[in-house]
Amino acid sequence: MSTKKEQRREQIMQSALELFALKGFYNTTIPDIASSLKMSVGNMYNYFKSKDVLAKEIIRYISVYLGGKIREVNELDISTEQKTRKIIEVYFKTASLRPEMIDYFLRIYLSNREVFKDGCEGMLCVNEFVTEIMIYFEEGVKCGDLRDQDFFSAFGLFMGYLGGMVFLKGEDILPRELNEYVDDISLNIYRALKV
What we know:
Layout: H1 3-23, H2 30-36, H3 41-47, H4 51-74, H5 80-97, H6 99-109, H7 127-142, H8 151-170, H9 182-193
Helix pairs in contact: 1-2, 1-4, 1-6, 4-5, 4-7, 5-6, 5-9, 6-8, 8-9
């Protein structure tokens, strides 16, 4: 695929992300997305055959983005406790700089599973992100820092906590910025997961 075509696909996904965050998934139409980019609906269909296909591509795009950021943390030669903090920083930084990404994950991907049933079963469309979280857990267990436990229990604790905080921030319930909670949250998560 040409670089220009790939750039246009990313522009479409970004515009769709912003519109989904603003209007909701079901209230946003392909013509809305095309209009926001000043392109024809027919041209939109050259990039994405349907809104459901677009929805799946967006969650894969987010997974690759976050997975890459967490891979950078996993590759650092630092303690598991420090990695815990850095992963939280990455997630909260993404939630602050690209809130539509985390909003999409929390409000659309997790809430509208019927849209993602064909081709995104289980964790298929978020495998880059989930794989890096698995690596974080496996390496933490291997070096003796983290308890060996069921992956979904550990994953739920970690991501549920982060997702909950981002959700509270998005609802304007938190009195402070997300980055001001990093120390407490990383300590709480590490204590809950450690040996």
